[in-house]
Structures are given as structure tokens and as C-alpha cells.
């Protein structure tokens, strides 16, 4: 393999100077054989082999953290960006306060926001399915849903007991005896929820480390693992237990691993591995941050202690302190940060343990482990508030939370979405004259979603369909199906109840006769599955029609906005705005990138900005603004999003503390915030914020707009 790489070295020619691309043949000869044998990260192996040579005093000349240099060692762009921003906050805090005693970092997941959101949604969906299945099974076993609902209202832990009861096939795995559902309600003291691996060892309070068992079994088990406990002659014995756990399809991989854990939990190294799994974050990017911070503060002899913890630990503290997490606003980030910052002050660390590791490697961690405690004592010590009123204080801290959004000023974003659209000239019922429309498609009229899309267009204006325009007799075949078949059918559910569900009439027709066909005298026309229709009138676009095309017109839509320039017309006493898109940017002969002056003037005239108006400032996506009514002094601060071309002077705005506006706000009123940016008799300020969220109000930014090329 190494020889192949050498033979094809030209394939690896690159222009970047980033160090991880510049390996010598000697270095690759050392790395590749090991990496083929072991699933190890490249940088971890380089450090193991002593091939990363760093200055003994790496930060000697740095008064503050060189956040760009540190983030360069993190290859995941999502994590690297988050690290840069976090370290900027550390630097700002050092400048403001001079010294930091404790620094606790929670690293982001190695996913972008959309991936993380989808992962959360998938988890919540699976979680709900599991809860619903357990609830239905429990109600069936008890025989009376009302009794179950009353019991749930009286006991917080019954919800978890139900899930474990269902997951365990109604059996206590420790002794193999059946747990009667009704007994959990009538005799709750007979049962306890046990942590399979004691919490003071595992720091794991998740469902995969919990089991429902008879209280008598739990008291005998104590702080042992199931293997230790059952091999001492208790319960049903290790062999039967192992077979039961291995054969239960409702147990996931992690839960089975906890049940069948065979190592000695009193061993210090074993306990350190649990800490690295569930408390201290040992991922590569986290180690980069931790080791860099430790190195920086050590060189400064500052005494600052540093750790990087896992998100599941923060989530667990939230759960035990009953701090619900709502993602409808951004306040939860600050609340999480407060919980993270409070972790060094938990009473748990007074028992000999520590949250601050001396050193963290990929598969090892040097940290004090502390006492092994029973679950009740652990709960009391671990989840005691760092000081009286802590939880109340952070739950009522909304008014004190500051927000700093990252403004997007980059010039090299994509100019439009990647979808290629075709267009047609048409005239709909509402039109007074012909216009050019973008063509859209119903992809599958037999699916429920496809039918709903068809129906929405059909009910509004069936002349939009190209089939109606060019082949009315074939379109009438579709209409016959609409009259013959319903769009709902009754279906019997697993619980025996009958439920009305949506269905496509075309699907019902297909089941009886096959797919709908275009009209022909012998009924041999092609099948109809997709339908094209005229969607919206063509707006701003990039024409990519090939030179040899005849009637067809091909375009790119959704031209992405870059910035908006704000002007003040002193003659009429009103503000005027003009929007610039990424597609408007070009290179000049000198290789400079920006908007050419003649293009800028063209947009300015099109947007009806007066020649005599005074330039005030430029707004980019996520810039903050303040707007005030000069008559009644009512004011509001919002995020600028983009120029909106629906009307002259309109823009899209967003709330500062949440994703959408769900109420009435001063000046702009209700509904989606696509409004006139500066209403009459109002004044606007651009609000710059530093990394700590401190606001600075700007009435006029500069004499002239930037990035205009001659």
C-alpha cells in the first residue's frame, strides 16, 4: 500500500499548508501499518509515537488563548467553529475578570445543527413509541386504565417502572420471578429501581443502567454488579440470568453490556473508564481543548483547573433538579452553561473524587475516583444544589441572559439553491396576460402526500396542470377517479379500534384497475403517475438555458441574499433600503471581489433609493437592530435576517431569543416578521454586540458602503 501511495504521489498534490496533509514517507511507513490494525485516530497515534513536536512553552508569548491555533487541530468544522467561539468567551472573561478559578467545557456533538435536530427528533419519536407500548401493555395487565392514570398522578416513578416492567418482559431478572402489574400500584414498596452499575462508579442514571426488581433483591445486591451478586449464590444464578438477558430482544446493546459487565468495579482503572464514558468527555476534539487549556494555564502558573464534561451529565443534572428543557427559545443554552459552571461546586467532589482530570488520553484518564456509595447516599450528595436557591435563581434568570449571535458577513456563499427549474409561458384564470411560470411537479399521485399536493393545486386552480391544458380528455380520467373513490378509509388498529385514515383515491383505483392511463380509444395509453403544473411566476433568477435549447427555459431560483444597505432620505424623513444578493458579486480585473459600482447603482435605482439619501449602515444576516417609534417612544430589538422582495422596503426579521415570533411585539404587531423594516415615524439603530453579549448602538456606521468595486 505504501508503495502504491509513493507511485501515485501526484494525486496528493495540494495547495494548503495545514500540517496534517504534509506527512513524509517515513512517517506514513510508521502510521499506516498501525492504523490498519487499530481503529485509532490519526492525531492520537502521532502523539503516541511522539511525532508531534510542540514547543515546551507553546503559549509563552500569548497573553490570551490563541483560539484559531487551538481550533486548527480539530478537523470537524462544526466542533472547530464552536471551540473558536467558546475560547473567545474565555479570553473576554480573562480580560474582564483577570483570573478564572475553574473552567468547565461541554463540547458540541460532532454534527451540524440539522443533523443534531434530526437525531433529537428520532430519539424522541422512538422514546414515545417505547413509552406508549409499555403503557398499553401495563393497562391491559391491570385491566382498568382509570386505575393506572390515578396511580400515575400519585407516583412520579411509576412511569419509569412501567417502562422497565415492559422492557423486562414483566420479570425481575435478578431472581427470575414475575412482577405483577397491579402489584406495582397496590404494593409499591415491594419494588425498587436499581442501578445495574452503581451510580458512584458509572455516573450513569440513564434507562440503560436501570432495572426494576424486588426490594429484597436490591438490598442484598448493594453496590455489586449483577455478576458479583449472582455468583455469590443469590437470585436465580448467573447462568440463567445471562441467558435471560441475552435472549431479551427488548434490551439494547448498551443495556445488555451493563447487565453482563464482568470486570471488577473496585478496580481504579475500571472506574476511570466509566468516568471517561459518562462524565469526562474523552473524544479527540475534547482532548485537544482540554490539553490546550491545561497547558496554557499551567504555563501561566495561574492555578486554573480545567475539565471537559459530557452533555449527558448536564442533561442528568437537569432531570434531577427538575429543570425542563424547552428548545422554543435560546435561554436553555445559558441555563445549561450555568449548570456546567456549577459542577465544580457539587458536594460529590468532597468525597475524594474529582471532576478535574490530570491527563486524558483516547483510552485512559488520570483522575481521582472517590468513594463507592450506595444509590441513596449518592443521590443525596450528587444532586444537592451547590447553594440554596441555585435552581430557582437560574430558572428565573431570563431577564439577565445576554445574547450574542454570529453575524454572517461571508462573501463566498452559494448564489442559489442547487435545484434546476424549467419554466413555461402560461395564463391562469387569475391572470390578465400571459406570464412566465416555474414548473413544479406532483411526483406520485398514488401516495397520500402526493394526492394532498395534487388536491391543493386542483382545488385552487386546475388550469395550472399542464395535462389539463394540453390533454383535457386525459385529465378528465383523473377527475372521474376523484368522483368514484373516497380519500379516507376505515382501518382496524392493533387495539381493535377502528380509525379513519387518509388515502389517495388514485391508489384505491389502482388496487381495482391498475394505474390510471392517458385517454386512448383502446385504453392503451401511457400510465399517469406524475403531474407537472405551473407553480409561481418567475422572479429573480439565473438563466442557465443551453444555447441550443428551443422553447425550454432553464433557471436557478432562490437567489440568496448577502446584505442590505440602509439609507436615510432627509427630504422626506424616511429610511430606504436596498438588498444585494450573492449573485451580484463579481471579480474585477485586479482580482478583487465585491459588487461593481454600476451594478450597485442599478440596484439602488431599482429599489428606489434616492441619489441624495445618506448611507447609514449595512445589515448582514443575524445583525441586531433597534427600532423606536419617535412619537410614543415604543421600541423593540430584533435580528435582521434578509431583505424581502415582496414589497419595497420590506425585510424578514427574527426575535433575538427564539426562532419564531409567536405573539404580538411592539411596532410590528403579530404574525411572521416579514414587514417594512423601518415603519414611518420610526428610527433605527444597528446594535453591535461583543462576544459577551454587551450591546453597542450605532446610528451611522461609515460615510460609504464597503466592497464596491470601480
TrEMBL record:
GO MF terms, alphabetically ordered: DNA binding; endonuclease activity; hydrolase activity; metal ion binding; RNA binding
Superkingdom of source: Bacteria
Cofactor(s) for this UniProt protein: Mg(2+)
Any single biological process term in GO: defense response to virus
Keyword terms, alphabetized: Antiviral defense, DNA-binding, Endonuclease, Hydrolase, Magnesium, Manganese, Metal-binding, Nuclease, RNA-binding
A Pfam family the protein falls into: CRISPR_Cas9_WED
Family from the record: Belongs to the CRISPR-associated protein Cas9 family. Subtype II-A subfamily.
Protein name, entry field: CRISPR-associated protein, Csn1 family
Biological source species: Companilactobacillus nantensis DSM 16982
